[in-house]
Design a protein that fits this description.
By secondary structure, the chain is α/β, with parallel strands linked by helices. It has helices spanning 13-26, 33-37, 44-51, 87-90, 111-123, 142-154, 168-177, 194-204, 219-243, 263-272, 286-289, 322-332, 335-344, 349-354, 360-375, 396-406, 413-423, 437-454, 459-464, 468-475, 477-492; strands spanning 82-85, 96-100, 134-138, 158-163, 184-187, 210-212, 248-255, 275-281, 316-320, 382-388, 432-434. α1 (13-26) crosses α21 (477-492). The two termini are 30 Å apart.
């Protein structure tokens, strides 16, 4: 099967029957994408069973928590968790709603949704034999953790492939969830070294039992975020619009990452004619300047254009600096920083408390949202929505590094005041590009070097992605997959 082709039927009956047998023995019922987009559709008896399990455990019930509608206590809620940042915090009139990804089960990141979509879409089409195959999860940290979690629940052996320079907390989690040390593969570098991950996967792929689930080219990643994340963000907007009927959904902002989360922008643009803004690090400014480099905004992306990124539907690119994210990570998660925000800036303590839900990429998204509000001169009636992929608890070790390296080991009141002024209120319009056709096409063409020259993708398939009809057609696969999941569950009898 060629890259980009999404099966609408079982392509290998032997693998499919093995998967049915395997999940029947494991007692696993698979949620559909429609249920993950709208958890009110999950049967009441399933919801009751889910409530009996801790959201951090490798329980089969936690598959039905792989959505945005989780409360902090793991209960199902009507509206995803979010925080609205106002003018006193951002310096711009437009409200910025940050939807919180750290409420996802097991890994505290929305990447578990992408991992579920990538593995389950293979199981129901017979492209993965859980009794033989190993799932290989190339990632800079959260996606491979999501894959390990989903794999453990489904009884599939998983291998995490990630750069050795990622946060200590990622590796600590992996060591708790993976039984075999050799199933954690460390590659050179950090967030900016995705090619090195690919190289390691190429070696693993020489064994036919290793199945590479590359989030950067797995369209199931795009589809899960299009349907599930898009619907969740829309629900947050509708909740806020209930209180402010004149509110419009002006823009969706998200880091490039694997390209998956940006799919929610396609959903929102179809429904609300909003803009989609892609975020990248200015230390590695690929989209902005055809540039290169290295950065440490973990979760925001690398120096290439993902195959599943719908570049030709992106309205602007915002660049964010490493040191801004690092310094604000310190400010939001230290007593000195929080005291400055409350006592000196008059920010609601409840809002300040919510900042712990922002990891490095979430902070980057907020800064890009501020740039967007300034560039387009949005008003208080123009809502910007963005996401926090994970929470600050994954970056305690990075915070300690920043305090040591940038503040000489002491983040005091003066440092807090300087950080707020320079990295938050001081956000300017530099490194921001509104993309017309020619700029979109330039960025689109940058992907040629990764996917056609390096990865051997057929040029015809690569080029088809420039046409929006391509994306409309793959979106039509989701209801077919839901029917196939229903059929799969019927066969397992769980």
């Amino acid at each position: 099967m060629r890259m980009g082709e999404l099966p609408r039927e079982v392509v290998n009956e032997k693998n499919f029957n093995g998967a049915v047998r395997h999940l029947r023995a494991a007692g696993v019922r698979l949620p559909t994408f429609r249920e993950l987009a709208d958890p009110s559709l999950i049967p009441a008896e399933v919801v009751a069973e889910v409530a009996r399990h801790d959201s951090t455990d490798p329980s089969t019930a936690n598959l039905f928590r792989v959505h945005w509608f989780n409360g902090e206590d793991g209960s199902m809620v009507a509206t995803p968790g979010f925080v609205v940042l106002g003018r006193e915090f951002t310096g711009v009139a437009a409200p910025i709603a940050v939807v919180l990804g750290d409420r996802f089960p097991m890994i505290g990141s929305h990447k578990v949704l992408a991992a579920y979509a990538c593995l389950v879409s293979r199981l129901i089409t017979g492209r993965f034999d859980p009794e033989r195959d190993r799932a290989i999860w190339p990632s800079t940290g959260n996606y491979c953790r999501g894959g390990v979690a989903i794999g453990r629940i489904l009884g599939c052996r998983s291998v995490a492939v990630l750069p050795e320079g990622m946060s200590v907390e990622r590796f600590e989690w992996l060591r708790r969830w993976i039984n075999r040390p050799e199933d954690i593969v460390r590659t050179p570098g950090s967030e900016s070294n995705v090619k090195e991950i690919y190289d390691a996967c190429d070696e693993l792929a020489t064994d036919s039992s290793n199945v590479i689930l590359n989030q950067f080219s797995e369209f199931a990643n795009y589809l899960a975020h299009f349907r599930c994340t898009g619907a969740a963000l829309e629900k947050v907007f509708q909740r806020l619009q209930d209180d402010e009927p004149e509110l419009t959904l002006a823009a969706f902002v998200a880091g490039t990452g694997s390209g998956g989360t940006l799919a929610a922008g396609d959903y929102l643009k179809d429904a609300h004619d909003s803009r989609t803004i892609a975020v990248e690090p200015i230390n590695c400014p690929t989209m902005l300047y055809n540039g290169y480099g290295s950065h440490n905004i973990q979760g925001i992306g690398d120096k290439h254009i993902p195959l599943i990124q719908n570049v030709m539907n992106t309205d602007a690119v915002a660049g964010v600096a490493d040191d801004s994210c690092d310094h604000l990570n310190v400010m939001f998660n230290t007593d000195v920083g929080r005291t400055h925000l409350v006592d000196r800036r008059g920010i609601d303590p409840a809002i300040v408390e919510e900042l712990r839900h922002l990891g490095l990429s979430g902070i980057a998204n907020v800064l890009a949202a501020i740039k967007t509000a300034r560039y387009f001169d949005f008003t208080e009636k123009d809502l910007i929505v963005t996401v926090a992929t994970d929470g600050s608890n994954l970056y305690d070790s990075e915070r300690k590094k920043t305090i040591s390296n940038s503040f000489g080991g002491d983040f005091d009141a003066i440092a807090a005041a300087e950080t707020f002024a320079r990295h938050l209120i001081g956000v300017d319009g530099d490194h921001y590009l509104e993309t017309g056709y020619r700029e979109r096409r330039r960025i689109f063409n940058l992907g040629y070097f990764t996917w056609v020259e390096q990865r051997g993708i057929e040029l015809e398939m690569f080029d088809r992605r420039a046409d929006q009809q391509f994306w409309k057609e793959i979106q039509e696969v989701l209801p077919v997959w839901d029917e196939m999941i229903d059929d799969f569950n019927a066969k397992t009898g769980v």
